[in-house]
Amino acid sequence: MAKRSSDATSSEEQENGYLHGISPLKISRNNNKYFNGKLQTKHRTFNFVCYAPEKHAEYQVAEKVDSPVKITNIKYSPSLIDSTDLDIQINRRSRFNVMKKLDFKKKKEVEKANGDAVRSFTKISDIDITTSHVMYNIKGRVLGYIEEQKEVEVYGLKKLKREAIVADDTGRIIVTFWENQITQITENKSYILFYLSSRNNTSLKLTTTQKTEINEIEDLTDISETLIVPNTSNISGKILQVQCTGRKKCPSCDKNVEVQDGAEKIKCPSCNLKSHVKSLKESIFTRINIHDHQNAIHRLICFREPLEIFLATREKSYLLENLDELEDFLLDLKHYVKVTCSKDSDIITTIVTADGQL
């Protein structure tokens, strides 16, 4: 359930924030005038409906000039988008005040959809890692899958689930996709994801909801290497299995390119620019299974950065150019390894060789 303002009392709830998408006046089934919009607070964006048409002009002006506002004596109601969330109802008894400033800024990046509705977007690095059941809209690229599609039981019902890593230019986060939404995404393609809900049991994730909308967009570039990791854990053990997958990327548009064996130059099919093959960027996606001292097997994922740092400390950076040799090197390590990974996400953030042998 969404968190309410810490300044609100049981008799007078309030929210501070910025207005988006104030609609024209509308007529309800009961022949009453109203308008709706969105209120962007510090940690989330509420949908609201206002049954005080005489205040319509005030709301329009505040939205137009980006004024911070405080709305007092409001009511919360179950969201029409997500039954676990809240919407806001405003009436004639509610008070509307323009404030001098707030400790956060109005989001400028918005997307118009479904007529007059305006949806703001949150950068991945701005997602609040301390809260749950907060709705977010994000733009990002699907970097890869953490697991194969599997069937799980949810409230007594069996549902299909698959987790993927989604990134923008500020960070990476794990998103859980359910049922038919799984087939709506493809690895290495970019999407707008509307109505994702945050979950923070032991680590931060986003999950799709029944109202989630998935729209493919032009590929995003400048994807961040940073994973949003609020909690971490350490695992020590012997590398049991490993699989390294490399992808060549255009240095200009950052899109995948297929390189034929022996080719020295290649023209990117997306931006049509020709490059030397040796100048192409390469991403590495590695699956590592580690066997620990308690006889448990941990199935982990490692991206290029922590692997690159680990190899550099052992003067083995050249192995990044030959993934078969890299796999052999990791399997043949005599000492066990100690990795730090995000709890419940199985993504390695650091990797070192520990003292001792198995």
From TrEMBL:
Where is the region Disordered? 1-24
Please state what the protein is called.
Uncharacterized protein
- Organism in which the protein naturally occurs: Mytilus galloprovincialis (Mediterranean mussel)
Lineage at the top is:
Eukaryota, Metazoa, Spiralia, Lophotrochozoa, Mollusca
